[in-house]
Design goal:
By secondary structure, the protein is mostly helical. Helices cover about 70% and strands about 0% of the residues. Helix 2 (about 20-35) runs antiparallel to helix 3 (about 55-85), helix 6 (about 135-150) runs antiparallel to helix 9 (about 185-200) and helix 6 packs parallel to helix 10 (about 205-225). It starts with a helix and ends in a 6-residue tail after the last helix.
C-alpha cells in the first residue's frame, strides 16, 4: 500500500467517525427532499421554477448543497484543523508530499459527494416518482465538474456563494444582474447545469466552461502554494 492509499484509508476512517459530517452529507439533502416532497402540489410543475417539477428542483438543490458543503467547508476545515494541531508539521518531515495529502482528502470527500448525490436521486425516484435525470451524461458531467470546481475553490466564502447560486431562493426570482453574477460562481453554474440535465436539456456550454475554469485555475493554485506549515 503506497502513501496515497494509506492516507486515503486513514481519511476514510476519520470521516466515518464524524457523525455530524455523515448527517450533513447524507441526511440533510435527503431530509430536504422529503420535507418539500410532502408538501401538497409540490410534485407538479411550478411556474416560478420555469415549469420544473418542484420535487425535481429541490433534488437539484440538494445536490448543489452537497457539493457546496463538502467543497467549500469540508476539505478547508480538515486541512485547517491539521495545521492547527501540528499534523501538517509532523507530516512535513516524512516522505509524504503535500499534494498526496490533498489528493487523499479530495478523493474521500469526492466519493462521499457522489454517494450522496446517488442517494438523493434514488430517494426522489422511488419515494416521489420523480424520473431519473433525463440527460444522464450531462448530469454526471455537471456533478463531476461541480465537485472539481467547488473543491478546488474551497476557500471561497460559503454563504455568498450559496446566495448567488440560488440556493436560498430560486434564481428566477432574482434580478437579471444578480442572475448574471450568480451564473459566474461555480455553485451557480453547477446548480443550473444539474437542473437542466435533470429535465433533459443540454446544459449551456458556459456553465460547464465556468466550472472547468474554476477547477483548473483554483486547483492549480492550491497545488502550487500549499505548504505543510506557515512560512
Amino acid at each position: 500500500m503506497n502513501g496515497f492509499s494509506k492516507l486515503a484509508f486513514v481519511e476514510t476512517k476519520l470521516f466515518l467517525r464524524e457523525k455530524a459530517a455523515l448527517i450533513g452529507v447524507f441526511g440533510l439533502p435527503v431530509a430536504l427532499v422529503i420535507g418539500f416532497g410532502l408538501i401538497p402540489g409540490f410534485s407538479d410543475p411550478q411556474k416560478g421554477l420555469s415549469d420544473q417539477v418542484g420535487t425535481e428542483y429541490i433534488a437539484a438543490v440538494g445536490v448543489a448543497i452537497v457539493l457546496a458543503s463538502l467543497g467549500l467547508t469540508g476539505v478547508p476545515m480538515v486541512i485547517g484543523q491539521y495545521r492547527e494541531r501540528g499534523v501538517l508539521r509532523r507530516l512535513g518531515v516524512t516522505p509524504v508530499r503535500p499534494l498526496t495529502l490533498l489528493a487523499a482528502d479530495l478523493t474521500v470527500w469526492a466519493a462521499s459527494a457522489i454517494l450522496s448525490v446517488a442517494l438523493v436521486v434514488a430517494v426522489v425516484r422511488f419515494a416521489f416518482h420523480v424520473p431519473a435525470p433525463a440527460a444522464p451524461g450531462w448530469f454526471i458531467l455537471s456533478v463531476i465538474l461541480g465537485i472539481a470546481s467547488l473543491f478546488a475553490l474551497g476557500m471561497l466564502l460559503f454563504f455568498p456563494n450559496m446566495f448567488l447560486a440560488g440556493i436560498y431562493f430560486p434564481t428566477e426570482e432574482m434580478s437579471s444582474t444578480m442572475r448574471q453574477v450568480g451564473t459566474f460562481t461555480p455553485l451557480g453554474s453547477a446548480l443550473h447545469a444539474v437542473r437542466d440535465s435533470w429535465m433533459g436539456i443540454d446544459p449551456r456550454p458556459e456553465y460547464l466552461g465556468i466550472m472547468a475554469a474554476y477547477a483548473l485555475v483554483a486547483g492549480g493554485l492550491a497545488a502550487r502554494f500549499f505548504r505543510w506549515d506557515q512560512a
